[in-house]
Write a structure and sequence with these properties.
It is a single chain. Helices cover about 75% and strands about 0% of the residues. The chain is mainly alpha-helical. It has one domain. The N and C termini lie far apart (about 45 Å). About 5% of the residues are buried.
């Protein structure tokens, strides 16, 4: 599927990030709007995934995509994600459109 092992590694990394974004999207949407919201509203989940991918792309572009900058940028992004407070569990008001 990939031309060489380096490309295969990049493909596997992209899939891993997509899986993480998907899981995070379900948790966040359900926390904001109530259990089952993400499953009942796949268009909202798709928008969340698009936003995540766009942010990651912008972040990596800004890092210059240099080999050393790539690793540093990923480490910084992972640190920021771990430092973020967990989403609330939906006990607040439901937001209307």
């Amino acid at each position: 599927m990939f031309a060489d092992e380096q490309e295969a590694g990049a493909g596997e990394t992209a899939i891993a990030y997509s899986d993480q974004f998907l899981a995070a999207g379900v948790v966040r949407l359900d926390a904001l709007f109530g259990p089952g919201y993400a499953k009942a509203n796949p268009q909202a989940l798709g928008a969340y995934l698009t936003a995540c991918a766009t942010n990651l792309n912008a972040f990596m572009t800004a890092a210059g995509l240099a080999e050393s900058a790539f690793g540093e940028a990923i480490a910084a992004m992972e640190e920021e994600m771990q430092a973020a407070p967990p989403p609330s569990r939906g006990r607040g008001k439901r937001r209307d459109r």
